[in-house]
Design a protein that fits this description.
It is built from 14 helices and 14 strands. The protein is of the alpha/beta class and about 400 residues long.
């Protein structure tokens, strides 16, 4: 089968990029012909398909912003570059990922017109929320735009900027639900939570398919999973929506050591405490060592997490998870078996659950075995093929 994978970036930048790269490898391993389409960028990985990539757009100047906005509405070189790739590669399936703004959903329409099967994996809430993350002004979960996109203007959700919010509103208006449904055969929702929200936003239920993300489980394999230190950890972005301020305010008053791995806007403002160690951003080998020896990982998010890879990776390392009861996090956790959940943003509940996690006895080896079977690429591939054919 000839499959064209589309994502706005083609390098290891975030979860959507890592998924796209892993899926490309998985499909090739199973004998499929795979091409890729993305925006060109200085960090773009080497690929013979790069000659088709539209040039980089950014927000560095007024002229750049206008070009960025035009690109988001489907104007500019994206359509011609994509059509050239369709002419040469002749895909049977076009698999979309994060494509708004830097590429734009115009490519979904172009693929549909050519008779390609169009499948779209939803990594965020962009089809429901012009901000993409369902955070009103970046502060609290909000669903007002699910059925009335004008609310992005009312609340100036894009960086508290009216011009930015107007751009987001116009983009959402052009690429509306009816238009996107007409050119997409199937939407893949990595979490059941995402599927529920898409239907709530008016999308056809029959086009929604829940398929949990996968990872390269080989990178998580170890000789022993029961060797644990006397600490718990957080791995991820250091930002407010991730619940870091709530976690630190609780952790500072508990008699347990917390190791925080990551970088982000809060890195210089979080308080320094004797029982909290900030180790900064780390590559996978170091993350594997830290998370793989922790008593548990805590995911204190305060936004609608979709299907966080941090939870999946932790479980595949045999490390149980204490997760906030929000978004798609709870559906990954079997309480008492591979972790616990707590009320998102509730400091008292979080403190109680951290203590409960330290008091619990977990089967680390069993957690790893179950997770590696559940989140393997082979399990994902078998389910994906039913949607691509």
């Amino acid at each position: 089968m000839r499959i064209l994978l589309c994502n706005k970036f083609y390098y290891r930048r975030g979860g959507d990029c890592n998924y796209t790269l892993a899926l490309e490898e998985l499909l090739r391993r199973h004998g499929h012909e795979v091409a890729v389409f993305a925006m060109d960028h200085p960090d773009t990985l080497d690929t013979p398909w790069r000659r088709y990539f539209p040039s980089e757009v950014n927000l560095d100047s007024s002229k750049s912003k206008l070009r960025f906005f035009a690109r988001s509405l489907g104007f500019g070189e994206t359509a011609s570059r994509f059509n050239a790739l369709l002419d040469d590669f002749k895909p049977e399936v076009v698999h979309l990922n994060n494509i708004h703004s830097q590429l734009s959903p115009v490519i979904a329409e172009l693929a549909h017109r050519r008779g390609c099967r169009v499948v779209w994996t939803l990594h965020d809430y962009k089809l429901l929320c012009p901000r993409y993350d369902c955070l009103r002004r970046g502060e609290s979960p909000c669903e007002l735009c699910f059925n009335a996109k004008k609310n992005v203007l009312k609340h100036r959700c894009m960086k508290n900027s009216l011009p930015g919010s107007v751009m987001a509103y116009l983009e959402a208006g052009k690429w509306n639900r009816e238009r996107l449904e007409a050119c997409t055969d199937a939407f893949i929702c990595p979490s059941a939570f995402m599927e529920t929200k898409m239907v709530q936003g008016g999308f056809e239920r029959q086009k929604m398919h829940h398929l949990c993300n996968f990872i390269d489980i080989d990178k998580c394999k170890k000789e022993r999973y029961d060797v644990r230190g006397e600490y718990y950890c957080y791995v991820g972005r250091l930002s407010s929506e991730k619940g870091l301020e709530t976690l630190v305010s609780v952790a500072r008053n508990l008699p347990y050591r917390l190791v925080i791995v990551g970088d982000g806007p809060l890195k210089d403002s979080l308080p320094k405490e004797a029982n909290i160690e900030y180790v900064g951003r780390k590559d996978w080998p170091e993350i594997k060592d830290i998370a793989g020896k922790a008593r548990f990982m805590v995911i204190p998010s305060e936004w609608y997490e979709n299907n966080p890879l941090s939870v999946i990776e932790s479980l595949c390392l045999g490390t149980p998870v204490l997760g906030a009861r929000i978004g798609g996090i709870p559906e990954l956790i079997e309480e008492g078996r591979n972790g616990l959940v707590f009320e998102s943003g509730n400091r008292e509940d979080l403190a109680d659950r951290i203590s409960a996690m330290f008091d619990s006895a977990f089967d680390y080896t069993g957690i790893a075995a179950d997770a590696q079977a559940r989140f393997s690429g082979e399990t994902y591939y078998d389910n994906l093929m039913t949607l691509l054919q």
